[in-house]
Write a structure and sequence with these properties.
Elements (H helix, E strand, L loop, with lengths): L3 H31 L7 H5 L6 H32 L10 H10 L8 H5 L16 E7 L1 H18 L4 E7 L1 H14 L4 E7 L4 H4 L18 H4 L7 E4 L3 E3 L3 H5 L11 E5 L23 E8 L1 H6 L2 H16 L6 H11 L4 E4 L5 E2 L18 E3 L13 H12 L19 H12 L7 H7 L5 E2 L16 E8 L6 H7 L4 E7 L1 H13 L1 H4 L4 E7 L7 H10 L5 E4 L4 E3 L3 H11 L7 E5 L1 E3 L11 H10 L3 E2 L14 H6 L4 E3 L8 E5 L17 H9 L3 E4 L5 E3 L6 H8 L1 H22 L4 H8 L2
Parallel strand pairs: 1-2, 1-4, 2-3, 6-8, 9-10, 12-13, 12-15, 13-14, 17-22, 18-23
Antiparallel strand pairs: 4-7, 5-10, 6-7, 11-14, 15-21, 16-23, 17-21, 18-19, 20-22
Length: 752
């Protein structure tokens, strides 16, 4: 009877403690529901705890307050039990039992205070092993897609911590562009493989497709056949994807697949597959909203095991009987397949493919910036798509678009990369250089490997049937961009231009070219970007890029600040035939003139040019400052010449010439200002080219501000000393290469 009041108090305390715990969690749950999230669910479902640091801190503070109240109640309870002893009914209300039931659960009595504070922690996400190789596949065809894929690759390289192997299914154009780009990029711990899309066309060409991607939009269906048979899994990406996180996080999701799952996809975020977007809208069958195939996890090994090739074909054949064609290319067939085999798909969280086409539900995939993982520009409008946060997405995309790709040539710490023959050769050349050499920077520039993006814009060229075609070859930087339209108006033939630019400048050039009616309508101009690196302008390296990528039998080696006379293209083609260039070694000299006037009424004939020359409107090129550069052209003879005439080489002669495409390349030791063309003409002469001046051809140099390199030459004694040193070394190399015949160049130089 004496224990009855105590038992009542004990029951009251137990009930109070239970009520407090329950109310605590209800309070926290309700507080989070007000913010649109559930405390119990959001960490597990979102998988982005790092994005909610502030919210977590507030919640932990609330939990600590409630736990302190619970501790005080338990303390009172213990004191009551200590004075009363064992209850008469034999029940056990000791500390251990209370700790287990009220705080940690009976299965984990020994939890520390820190562990108890994290009692809602989700199971740890699967991780990728350090140095584990991640495979990424992409279908890429044409000039524009090749540009897009570079931005995708930059975003992946920026965040990555693992070695990567890119697998590109390409047409001939993309293969040429991307193979030269990656070869010159030389990114450590990155492998690249190419697969010929033409060999796969027969696999999908029978499928009618209305999508703007054409036949290449169906190629992802063939990856189990296209990729190596020993490749077990791969991440497949569209070219219009931008990564905002480490791709290893996506690769890790393969470990979440059940034994039966073979494909990982994000749900489609538009209403396309729900149908009824317009009258008679009839989409392909899909599971619910369907899935978007811009980001795919393909478990290749399992797909091959279940007979994927036959399964997708049967699905496509069956549906095409009623649908007649695909509207969304491979995506329609993937969805029809999944509709029949839902157990095979692993649904990825939607932030792995935030789809920015018009009228999507993409905004439900993120509440904060850090929720974003992958952005997919899957509207034909691309960056002009309508989205409330499109400015943020556009800025993120532009960050990688204009990001200096040279900064991504970084080693992965702790992951040894396989050294290529090119990198070994480069390292050997670097070790041979003497860093104390006064001209070290010049020598270093000669062996610098610059990233090169060939055919940056759309290019189309149809060879002429007579093998007389001539390409104008030139190089330029951003400060000569304004010359392009005028050159295109003066020269209707093919042009090969190498542009020395930074990543950001290349994008400015792209916008300039796309806004110009003149440049937009010229498809026979090849624009090749050589990306900036180092302190010098590698003028001869840039020239060589333009020269190597000319596609005609003959090349006109010009400079971009010259305008050729109207009709020069046709005149040169006739001269090639008349002078039997196919069977002889000739360099056809196009006489060079200049004007000091920014507004010039361009002469339409030789007679008009001679009149302007007599009036002082025009001058022979560099007559005032560097007469020797063009004096051997013999302008006095040219005035009355009616047939081509031969001239002899003289020291410092640097004319603009037409030669066969397989002529010697420019010597790349000469950078910036000085001797870059002189050395080339010298080598042509050493190879016994006849220098023939054309009597009815001319070009005019337009005025511009002095280049930065000529300013350095004029102001820096060290620059001039190193240029002289390089000249002497060039003479020595010429003597070793051509023997006694090259002695005249050394003698001529000493007589200057």
């Amino acid at each position: 009877i004496m224990h009855m009041p105590f038992r009542g108090r004990l029951k009251l305390l137990v009930a109070s403690l239970t009520a407090v715990i329950l109310l605590t969690w209800l309070y926290l749950l309700a507080g989070n529901l007000e913010n649109g999230r559930s405390l119990l669910l959001s960490p597990c479902l979102s998988e982005t705890p790092e994005a909610r640091v502030l919210e977590r801190a507030v919640l932990e503070s609330r939990v600590r307050e409630m736990e302190e109240e619970n501790r005080q109640i338990r303390l009172q309870l213990n004191q009551l039990q200590g004075t009363a002893g064992q209850p008469a009914d034999g029940g056990n209300y000791g500390n251990a039992a209370w700790g287990a039931s009220a705080d940690t659960g009976p299965e984990d009595v020994e939890n520390t205070a820190e562990e108890r504070a994290n009692h809602t922690e989700c199971p740890r996400s699967p991780t990728v092993l350090k140095c584990e190789l991640i495979h990424v596949a992409c279908v890429c065809a044409g000039h524009n897609a090749s540009r897009d894929v570079v931005t995708l690759v930059k975003s992946i390289l920026f965040h990555r911590k693992n070695p990567l192997h890119f697998h590109f299914i390409t047409d001939a154009v993309a293969n040429q562009i991307l193979s030269s780009l990656f070869q010159s990029w030389m990114v450590p711990s990155v492998q690249v493989s190419f697969y010929d899309a033409d060999e796969l066309k027969s696999e999908v060409s029978w499928i009618p497709n209305k999508h703007y991607s054409g036949i290449y939009g169906l190629m992802k269906l063939t990856l189990t056949k296209a990729l190596p048979s020993d490749l077990t899994k791969v991440i497949v990406l569209d070219t219009d994807i931008t990564f905002a996180t480490d791709i290893a996080e996506l690769w890790a999701i393969f470990r979440k697949f059940t034994d039966k799952q073979v494909i990982g996809l994000v749900e489609n975020q538009s209403d396309w597959y729900l149908g009824n977007l317009w009258k008679n809208h009839k989409p392909w069958p899909a599971l619910g909203r369907g899935f978007n195939t811009g980001v795919i996890l393909l478990y290749l090994e399992r797909l091959r095991r279940i007979g994927w090739e036959q399964m997708w074909r049967l699905t496509a054949e069956r549906e095409l009987m009623s649908m007649l064609s695909t509207s969304l290319a491979d995506q329609d067939i993937f969805n029809a397949f999944i509709k029949q085999n839902p157990v095979l798909v692993h649904q990825l969280p939607c932030f792995w493919n935030v789809q920015l086409s018009d009228h999507t539900r993409s905004e439900q995939c993120y509440t904060e910036v850090s929720d974003l993982k992958v952005i997919h520009w899957n509207s034909p409008k691309k960056l002009r798509v309508k989205n409330k946060h499109v400015e943020f997405f556009r800025n993120l995309y532009l960050t990688f678009l204009e990001y200096d790709g040279n900064l991504l040539r970084r080693e992965l710490f702790g992951c040894p990369s396989h050294a290529t023959s090119e990198s070994v050769q480069l390292q050997g050349a670097l070790e041979e250089l003497d860093e104390d050499d006064q001209c070290y920077d010049f020598r270093r520039e000669r062996i610098t490997v610059h990233r090169v993006h060939l055919y940056f814009l759309q290019y189309e060229y149809t060879p002429t049937g007579d093998d007389t075609d001539v390409t104008l070859v030139a190089q330029l930087s951003m400060d000569r961009l304004q010359m392009l339209e005028a050159i295109c108006k003066h020269w209707e033939g093919p042009i090969s231009l190498a542009l020395y630019m930074s990543d950001a400048e290349a994008q400015q050039f792209l916008r300039y070219a796309q806004a110009s009616e003149v440049l937009k309508n010229r498809k026979n101009v090849g624009y090749h970007i050589v990306y900036k690196e180092g302190q010098f302008y590698p003028v001869n390296l840039v020239r060589n890029v333009a020269l190597r990528n000319a596609n005609t039998p003959y090349v006109f080696l010009a400079d971009v600040d010259f305008l050729p006379m109207y009709g020069l293209y046709d005149y040169l083609r006739k001269s090639v035939v008349q002078l039997d260039m196919a069977n002889t070694k000739k360099a056809l000299v196009v006489p060079a003139f200049e004007t000091l006037r920014y507004r010039l009424s361009f002469p339409k004939s030789k007679a008009e040019l001679l009149s302007m020359l007599d009036m002082g409107t025009l001058y022979t090129f560099r007559y005032h400052v560097w007469t020797k550069g063009h004096a051997p052209t013999n302008y006095a003879k040219w005035r009355t010449a009616t047939t081509p005439y031969k001239v002899e080489w003289e020291a410092d002669f640097e004319p603009y010439v037409v030669v066969k495409r397989d002529c010697p390349e420019y010597d790349q030791r000469f950078v910036g200002f000085g001797w870059n063309k002189v050395s080339h003409i010298m080598e042509l002469d050493a190879q016994e080219y006849d220098l023939m001046v054309l009597p009815n051809a001319f070009m005019i140099h337009m005025p511009h501000a002095p280049s930065f390199d000529i300013s350095k030459f004029r102001s820096s004694p060290g620059y001039r000393y190193c240029l002289q040193t390089l000249k002497e070394e060039f003479h020595q190399d010429l003597s070793r290469k051509y023997g006694a015949a090259a002695l005249k160049y050394l003698t001529a130089q000493r007589n200057i």
